[in-house]
Amino acid sequence: MRNTTLWLYGFSLILIWSCSNSSSPENNSEKKISNEETINKPAKVKDEGQALYLKYCMACHQTDGSGVPGMYPPITNSTFINSAKKEELIKILLNGMKGPIEVNGQKYNQQMPKQDFLTDEQLSLIINFVSKSFGNNGSVVSPSDISAQRKTNP
Ligand code: HEC
Q1: Ligand 1 centroid to 131 CA: how many Å?
Q2: Distance (Å, rounded) from C-alpha 77 to C-alpha 74?
Q3: What is the value of pTM for the model shown?
Q4: How many domains, the chain?
C-alpha cells in the first residue's frame, strides 16, 4: 500500500514536470503577443522607456532632452520628431545619423552612433517615450515595426 502511494506520487511528479516543460514554448509566444499589446501602455513606456533613454541617449541629448548647442540637437519640442514618419525615427536608431539637419531652427552637422544592438522591444519603448515626452507629439511604434525595418534596412 505504502509503495503504491509513493509510486503514484512519483509518477504524478513526472507528469507535472513533463506538462510544464512541454507547454513552455506556448508560454513564450503568449508572452510575445502580450508584449506587443502592452508596449504602448503609458505606464510601461514612462518607466521602462525613460530608464532606457537615460541609459542610452542621455549622455548626448541630456536628461531633460535639451541637447548641447552646436553638438547634440535637442529632442524637446522637436520639430524633427513631430514631423518624422515612424520609419524615419526607427532608421535614426538602427542606422545612426549624420549630415546636416535642422532642429528647432538650429543647424547641426554631427554624427549619432547607431543603436541597433538594442532589442525591438527596447527600441520601441525608447521611441514611444521620446515621441510622447519632452513636449513632443510624434509617431508611436510597435516592436514589429522595428523588426520589419531591420529586414528592409538600410
Ligand atoms: C553619442 C551621442 C548620441 C547618442 C548616444 C544618441 N544621439 Fe541622437 N543624435 C546625436 C547627434 C549628433 C544627432 C544629429 C546628427 C546630425 O547632425 O545629423 C542626433 C540626432 C537625433 C535625433 C533627430 C534630431 C532631433 O533632435 O530630433 C533623434 C530623434 C535622436 N537623435 C534620438 C536619439 C535617441 C532616442 C537616442 C538613444 C537611443 C540617441 N539619440 C542617442 C547624438 C547622439
Answers
A1: 13
A2: 8
A3: 0.80
A4: 1
